[in-house]
Design brief:
single chain; 352 residues; alpha/beta; Nucleotidyltransferase, domain 5; 6-stranded mixed β-sheet; 5-stranded mixed β-sheet; 10 helices; binds adenosine-5'-triphosphate; binds magnesium ion
């Protein structure tokens, strides 16, 4: 989505998802009427290395990037990366219709009213989502330059070059478009629940009409379990993943349930806000991605609370996966959604 001026056109880009709990590398190749997975690598990150969307320990992140890239066996240096979090502002705005050549300046002027940062502190992008009665609806995307510099820095430190800088939520959308080419009618809400940030992106007809990131994720579950049972974060995390660490599932259910209620309220609040910005737009279904989407019972709980279908994303549904990767793909499942979306990007393209 962001077409940053200093980035050059390259070939053979691969997806590099720098998540707060793991770095994921996905390289896809197009041919024979479809996409094929050619390289996949995941390297875990200890908690607090990336905290509240800020890279606290850049060297550790660069090492994890190198580890994921070498596990994947990727030869290319050109990575498509993405940013997420609170320094990212995505807003739908309306401006009077202007001729295309005046649009850029009009957007700059309008953006100043909507962005809580100085305009020269941000990279700005936009896309037109509709025109009516002499007005244009735009989605404005602004991200703090310092945030981009931070992520670009760890990628360069790893010896790679960031050929594309996207937004997690839009990468999620790209992934969905590939896997669900037929769903173009009603609004679908994509929600990626990672370890620390929840990214939402509402798509209609292949266009993003709303997006927002919320600081809430799998770590909230793990912390609640740790607190409730007076155990360390690592042990609580293992228990949450169903590993045998001497803690029965029943013991963690109360903590899980209370966080799921909070999560449901957070998402509800976001969608209420969406409803207030979009005239009578109805969300027909929700697709969950991110590692947390695998939490047993979460999709069903959210579906019964909100009364709409909630599915779990299958990012490789329409991608050919070679035998060597089937196990990793199955285990990581929806956690690879953003990496797949980034793997679809090519340097120089405009994304969605
Ligand atoms: N089977 C599972 N059950 C419950 N939670 C899971 C499961 N698998 C992964 N998770 C949780 O998903 C989270 C990691 O998901 P993901 O890889 O999408 O996050 P991330 O991209 O590293 O983080 P973020 O995008 O927030 O920076 C962790 O909190 C992890 O505990
Ligand atoms: Mg993530």
């Amino acid at each position: 989505m962001l077409n940053l001026p200093f980035l050059r056109r390259r070939r053979e880009t691969f997806g590099l998802d720098i998540g707060s709990s793991a770095v994921k590398v996905v390289q896809l190749r197009e041919g024979g009427g479809g996409h094929r997975l050619v390289a996949l690598g995941i390297a875990p990150l200890p908690p607090d290395v990336i905290s509240e969307g800020t890279i606290k320990e850049p060297a550790v992140v660069s090492d994890a990037i190198n580890e994921a890239v070498s596990k994947a066996g990727v030869k290319s240096k050109d990575a498509a990366i993405a940013v997420s979090g609170r320094e990212l502002i995505i807003k739908k705005v309306q401006i009077p219709e202007v001729p295309p050549k005046e649009l850029h300046d009009a957007v700059q002027l309008e953006a100043e009213h909507h962005i809580p940062f100085a305009i020269d502190e941000v990279f700005l992008d936009y896309h037109v989502v509709g025109k009516h009665d002499g007005a244009m609806d735009l989605i404005l995307v602004a991200v703090k330059k310092s945030k981009v510099t931070e992520y670009v820095g760890v990628v360069e430190e790893a010896g790679l070059s960031p050929a594309v800088v996207d937004v997690d939520g839009f990468a999620l959308g790209n992934q969905f478009e590939l896997n669900h080419p037929d769903e173009r009618g009603e609004a679908v809400a994509l929600v990626d629940i990672g370890a620390s940030t929840m990214k939402t992106n509402v798509l209609r007809g292949g266009t993003s009409i709303f997006a927002r990131d919320i600081p809430f994720g799998g770590n909230n579950y793990t912390q609640a379990i740790a607190q409730h049972l007076h155990i360390a974060f690592e042990q609580a995390e293992a228990a949450k993943l169903g590993k045998d660490v001497g803690i029965g599932w029943d013991a963690i259910v109360p903590a899980l349930e209370s966080i799921s209620r909070e999560l449901s309220l957070e998402v509800q609040r976001t969608f209420d806000y969406f409803a207030s910005t979009a005239d009578s737009e109805r969300i027909a279904k929700i697709v969950l991605a991110g590692g947390c989407a695998q939490l047993p019972g979460l999709a069903d709980y959210l579906s019964s609370t909100w009364g709409i279908p909630v599915e779990v994303a299958r990012p490789f549904q329409r991608i050919e996966v070679p035998g060597a990767h089937t196990e990793t793909v199955a285990a990581a499942g929806p956690a690879l959604a953003v990496a797949v979306g980034l793997g679809l990007r090519q340097a120089g393209d405009k994304g969605s």
